Amino acid sequence: QERLKPILKAMEPEIERNLSLRPLVGIIMGSDSDLPVMKVGAKILKDFGIPFELSIVSAHRTPMRMVEYAQSAAKRGLKTVIAGAGGAAHLPGMVAAMTSLPVIGVPVKGSSLDGVDSLHSIVQMPRGVPVATVAINNSTNAALLAIRMLGAFIPDILEKMDAYMKKMENEVLGKVERLDS
Ligand code: RP5
Q1: In ligand 1, which atom is closest to the CA atom of 61?
Q2: Is the ipTM of this complex over 0.85?
């Protein structure tokens, strides 16, 4: 957690403000080495003004912390958890096994196997305990999916998502126009 502080500081003041509200989304990762990937999703939540928390929870190095995190998540007001991990990436599946909240898994590309190991570990959850798995290193989509989940119940958030999609559409149409002219 100590090692996250400089990064959080760099993302001030918005994150600080977000963290001061009751978090709706929990972002966790197996190691601080996952942070460069996971902070991209954190930035998206920040841009949408979604209160979130960010922490390191390792399934194999801090198993009891993982249990505590998952079991307290709903009670603490979280609505969804984004969990990123690399290698034999048990974190998202184990958290999903200990909370009934939706869990979104981000396979993080490690130094070997190009992240396919993480992808398979996360996406191949056996029947009964789902983990919504995004593409390798794609914490952007994890954040956008979390925002859509919240937007299903919070009209302001849905409106922001509509505006985000419109902006993307306009960007592409602008490029088409430039190519055509
Ligand atoms: C996993 O092992 C983490 O999620 C990380 O992606 C990977 C490597 O961790 P470090 O050795 O860099 O701490 O638990």
Answers
A1: 14
A2: yes
